């Protein structure tokens, strides 16, 4: 590579010398031609220089940096595949083919070779596999996908606080930096050698999206409704189920945190301590206080000596509050339950959870693009009841990325004696 780069730079230099000579002679046509040749070589030289720099930076001997490089490359390839998949699922032709397949109970296996369903198979093949989704169903149109996600926004979603990634494959991994720079630069003497020190450390976190789904029975009359009406009905059914599944996966990550108590009367001091000492400064600055209804109500009722609430209204969002500048969010008790200890003794009472941290660094929700739907008017009870059974499938996974980015606290309310 070094020899090719050296030769390319020399050829470009020679072209520029020739261009200067032609310009001195007043040969503008010849000058422009040589300059065009020299300019054309710029991209080639820059590409070789970039490659050489990357090979030097991501030396195979440095496993962590090599993994980071490979991970970034895989992520870029996934993004390109996702864009291609979106393009394949766009347009009226795809919507018509998808709706027709649903109405006629056409599956991935039975519709193969039918020209009218070619757009559906093209999208499956673009998504990877032979084709991918053969055990699920046809990928939903972009329009239907967006309809479902718009409906999902009406529900409380833990994913709003976590990092989310759309992936095209069933499995993959991410390189997560585990250690930040903690030392200053080295002193370098005149003509001295610069030695690498305090190198970042990376850890490979793997994900494997799993299949989640459900079935809804749709009347024949509704199946014959206009396409927009049919998709709207299915999105109203499917969207809350997707949200509940996301929440369950992310809640499992939060449940892995070990809780410590906040004693009633010491809430402000203990939460400040969690922000000041329980978290690394970088995570603390980006922290969110995630409560359930019990813990949020408890904090909302606290007042200082001047009868002012300790939660400060967010001027940019009238219904939102902050604590020491950090957003305070809450979810239903059904999603983030409190716990009650009924045994006798000093631990008897209620425990209201508060999760504090930079959740986008703490965990990632991986969603596979896109949702899959299939139908049948033959299987199950569909034939006897003149209905169609529609099955929706979503594929996702949640992984803890940096455990130190979040902590769990519980407000302890002792039981009355």
Label this structure with key terms.
417 residues, alpha+beta, phage-related protein like fold, eight-stranded mixed β-sheet, six-stranded mixed β-sheet, 25% strand, flat
Task: Write up what this structure looks like.
- The chain is of the alpha+beta class.
- The chain has two domains: 56 residues; 255 residues, Alpha-Beta Complex (phage-related protein like fold).
- 42% of the residues lie in helices and 25% in strands.
- It is built from 13 helices and 16 strands.
- The strands form three sheets. Strands 6, 7, 8, 9, 10, 11, 12 and 16 form an eight-stranded mixed sheet that branches.
- A hairpin with a 7-residue loop joins strand 11 and strand 12.
- Helix 1 packs antiparallel against helix 2.
- It is flat, with a radius of gyration of 29 Å.
- It starts with a helix and ends with a strand.
- About 1% of the residues have low confidence.
- Its main location: virion.
- This is Phage major capsid protein.
- It is found in: Virion.
Report the biggest beta sheet as strand number plus sense, adding barrel if it closes.
8 strands, mixed
Q: Radius of gyration, Cα only, in angstroms?
A: 29 Å
How big a fraction of the residues is strand? Answer: 25-35%
Number of helices: 13
Q: How far do the termini sit from each other?
A: 79 Å
Total E-strand runs = 16
State the helical fraction.
Answer: 40-55%
Q: What number of structural domains do the residues give?
A: 2
Low-confidence stretches: 129-134
Judging from the principal axes of the Cα atoms, what is the shape?
flat
CATH architecture of the largest domain: Alpha-Beta Complex
Looking at the structure, the CATH topology of the largest domain is: phage-related protein like fold
Instruction: Give the overall average pLDDT.
Output: 82
SSE-based structural type: alpha+beta
The top-level CATH class of the largest domain is Alpha Beta
> In sequence order, what are the helices and strands, one letter per element?
HHHHHEHEEEEHHEHHEHEEEEEHEEHEE
Domain Phage capsid-like C-terminal: 136-407
Subcellular location: Virion
Pfam family, one: Phage_capsid
Protein name: Phage major capsid protein
């Amino acid at each position: 590579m070094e020899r090719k780069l050296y030769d390319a730079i020399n050829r470009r230099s020679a072209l520029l010398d020739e261009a200067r000579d032609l310009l001195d002679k007043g040969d503008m046509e010849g000058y422009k031609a040589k300059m065009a040749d020299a300019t054309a070589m710029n991209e080639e030289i820059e590409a070789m220089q970039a490659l050489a720099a990357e090979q030097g930076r991501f030396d195979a001997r440095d496993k962590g940096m090599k993994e980071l490089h490979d991970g970034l490359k895989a992520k870029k390839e996934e993004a390109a595949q996702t864009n291609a998949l979106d393009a394949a699922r766009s347009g009226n032709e795809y919507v018509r083919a998808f709706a027709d397949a649903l109405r006629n109970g056409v599956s991935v296996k039975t519709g193969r070779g039918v020209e009218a369903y070619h757009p559906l198979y093209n999208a499956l093949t673009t998504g990877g596999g032979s084709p991918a989704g053969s055990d699920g169903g046809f990928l939903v149109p972009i329009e239907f996908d967006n309809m479902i996600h718009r409906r999902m926004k009406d529900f409380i979603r833990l994913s709003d606080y976590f990092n989310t990634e759309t992936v095209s494959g069933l499995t993959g991994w991410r390189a997560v930096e585990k250690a930040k720079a903690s030392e200053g630069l080295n002193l370098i003497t005149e003509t001295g050698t610069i030695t690498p020190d305090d190198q970042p450390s990376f850890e490979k976190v793997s994900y494997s999206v799993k299949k989640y789904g459900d079935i809804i029975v749709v009347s024949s009359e509704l199946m014959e409704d206009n396409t927009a009406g049919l998709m709207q009905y299915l999105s109203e059914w499917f969207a809350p189920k997707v949200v509940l599944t996301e929440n369950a996966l992310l809640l499992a990550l939060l449940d892995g945190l070990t809780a410590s108590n906040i004693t009633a009367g010491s809430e402000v001091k203990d939460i400040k301590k969690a922000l000041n000492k329980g978290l690394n400064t970088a995570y603390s600055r980006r922290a969110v206080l995630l409560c359930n209804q019990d813990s949020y109500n408890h904090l909302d009722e606290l007042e200082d000596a001047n009868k002012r609430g300790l939660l400060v209204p967010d001027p940019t969002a009238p219904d939102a509050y902050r604590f020491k500048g950090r957003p305070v969010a809450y979810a239903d008790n059904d999603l983030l339950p409190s716990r009650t200890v009924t045994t006798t003794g000093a631990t008897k009472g209620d425990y209201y959870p508060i999760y504090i941290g930079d959740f986008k660094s703490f965990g990632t929700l991986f969603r596979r693009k896109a949702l899959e739907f299939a139908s049948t008017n033959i299987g199950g009870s569909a034939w006897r009841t003149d209905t169609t059974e529609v099955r929706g499938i979503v594929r996702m996974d949640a992984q803890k990325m940096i455990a130190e980015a979040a902590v769990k606290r519980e407000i302890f309310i002792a039981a009355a004696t």
